[in-house]
């Protein structure tokens, strides 16, 4: 008579082979015997380095797709009220502004705005010239501008997936290679703007690490 171990061992090998085959087909790695998935498993990546910069107790991500200063206003209020009404000390409050869609243009230099006619593309008028803007009107010079918020510790992140889509559209319109336009725009980010693989992933990973979220 075969023992219990003898009768089940072939079945175990079959299950292991089947799991390996399924992983090969789906691209989902199988678990080794005895392993379990934990909902709290840490899956840090080089793409999470921006999250690791946020050491404060109170952390919030403001997500915007529109070219305006609403996200900057909310981030400013977030910092100010925590300081004035809750007595938060420097470093205890972190604000992040995530930009994609038309809001991507918040993160580009004046040179990129002029070269690619970004003001005309998103229908933004320069308040000084009253013409389509050939400069980033929210880059500097005011209380609710990128440089002013960065000086207060606000971190800006830009969606690389959105950047790729915008670059492809511009390249098609101008009859230029996609790679040329993409590389130029990526290099034309304002100092300190962090490029993340996709905003939807950045939001997910931020929330998994306890950062609250606001869609502006």
Walk me through the topology.
Layout: H1 4-26, H2 49-52, E1 58-64, H3 70-86, E2 93-99, H4 110-115, H5 118-121, H6 146-151, E3 155-159, H7 160-174, H8 178-187, E4 194-196, H9 199-208, E5 212-215
Parallel strand pairs: 1-2, 1-5, 2-3, 3-4
Extended strand count: 5
Low-confidence segments, ≥5 residues, pLDDT <50? 1-16, 18-41
Query: How many individual helices?
Result: 9
Question: Globular, elongated, flat, extended or rod-shaped: what is the shape?
Answer: globular
Number of individual domains: 2
How much β-strand is present in the residues? Answer: 5-15%
CATH architecture of the largest domain: 3-Layer(aba) Sandwich
Element pattern in H and E = HHEHEHHHEHHEHE
Radius of gyration, whole Å: 24 Å
Mean pLDDT: 86
The class by helix and strand makeup works out as: alpha/beta
Q: How would a crystallographer describe the biggest sheet?
A: 5 strands, parallel
């Amino acid at each position: 008579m075969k023992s219990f171990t003898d009768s089940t061992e072939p079945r175990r090998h079959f299950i292991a082979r089947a799991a390996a085959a399924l992983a090969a087909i789906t691209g989902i790695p199988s678990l080794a015997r005895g392993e379990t998935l934990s909902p709290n498993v840490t899956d840090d990546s080089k793409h999470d380095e921006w999250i690791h910069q946020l050491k404060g107790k109170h952390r919030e991500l403001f997500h915007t797709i529109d070219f305006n200063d609403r996200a900057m206003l909310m981030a400013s209020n977030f910092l100010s009220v925590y300081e004035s009404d809750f007595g938060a000390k420097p470093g205890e409050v972190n604000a992040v502004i995530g930009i994609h869609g038309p809001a991507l243009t918040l993160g580009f230099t004046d040179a990129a705005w002029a070269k690619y006619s970004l003001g005309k593309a998103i229908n933004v008028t320069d308040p000084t010239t009253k013409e389509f803007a050939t400069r980033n009107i929210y880059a500097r010079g005011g209380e609710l501008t990128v440089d002013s918020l960065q000086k207060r510790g606000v971190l800006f992140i830009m969606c690389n997936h959105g950047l790729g889509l915008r670059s492809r559209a511009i390249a098609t319109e101008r009859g230029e290679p996609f790679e040329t336009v993409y590389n130029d725009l990526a290099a034309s980010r304002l100092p300190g703007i962090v490029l993340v693989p996709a905003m939807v992933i950045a939001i997910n990973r931020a929330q998994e690490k306890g950062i609250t979220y606001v869609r502006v």
